[in-house]
Here is the input.
Amino acid sequence: MQRLYLDQFRPATELVRPESGQVSPPCQVIDMHAHFGELVNGESYMDKYDVREKVETLKRAGLKRIFALDLSWGEKLDRLRRFLEASDGFILPVGSVDVSKAADPGFEKLAYSQLTDLKAKGCPAVKLWKDMTLRGRDYFGFQMALDDPRYACIFQISGELGLPVILHVADPPCFFRPNSPENEHYLCLYRHPEWSFAQPGIPSFEEHMRMQEAILSAHPGTTFIIAHVGSYAENLDKVSEWLERFSNMYIDISARVDQLGRQPYSARDFLIRWQDRVMFGTDYEAQFDDVRTERFYQTHYRFLQTRDEYFDHPFPDFLGQWKVYGLGLEPPVTRKIYHDNAVKLFKL
Here is the structure.
């Protein structure tokens, strides 16, 4: 019998169950977590897709609007905005702040300038990323904590300006563990060793969660959308605890269907309970072709709306190596997640 490597094992299931076929959302959809600039698509992002064609593809997939979350400010933000003007407001750029300058004297003045610029240019929010805690050695020569007083001005000013903060705090817990045979993301980290944060000097996942709690507590006047199911889709009881404690906390479900879909009973109960605090986000990449785009959104709709069993989640090529189950949420719940919550929170 041939011995296989893990990445060669692609079992074809013999499970026979009915499938729902084409799924239509009960309303137009707002995807508030996608990438159209260089953060994910590279510096040559403008060569990778046609804006007008991309908009038509996304409209066919059921979308009404989509947010472009990229770490851009100043001229880079202006360049992205000019490029996306052809979308006629369908793609909304969300800018950021140059956190690499946080240890410099006068950073608060710089943060105020960049945040007021985002507000003036119509950005519905500000995007902050995991580089704040993971790239400190590159920026400052040391790792800076998320709740370091030097970062606090970003959160404070955002609250004063009425700019919600879309914050990616940490990747899955397994990314912070040694990539041993016990690591359930072993294959993902084998393919992408640069995603492993099990390195000396990098704060643990648990420390990231402590920092996350600290900023939510310290800035009650600032609205936070903690991306990727509040950083901890693996522990919905803990995320529920945070949502209970912090009225300024919202979440999105981007790139975590793999986690939610393997705990369908708990995930269904969780999304019904917190239906007013959950945003539809996907981590969509503009470089996806038309076929992948259609399949990508259909998988999300299938997951949220049907009771289909044991199917591929949206990122089977690099996230969890398992199948997922549909939650069968009713239209009153999905309308809030797909559309109403974003309209209300981002004043669309």
Observations:
- The longest strand covers residues 29-35.
- The chain has one domain: 27-345.
- The longest helix spans residues 290-305.
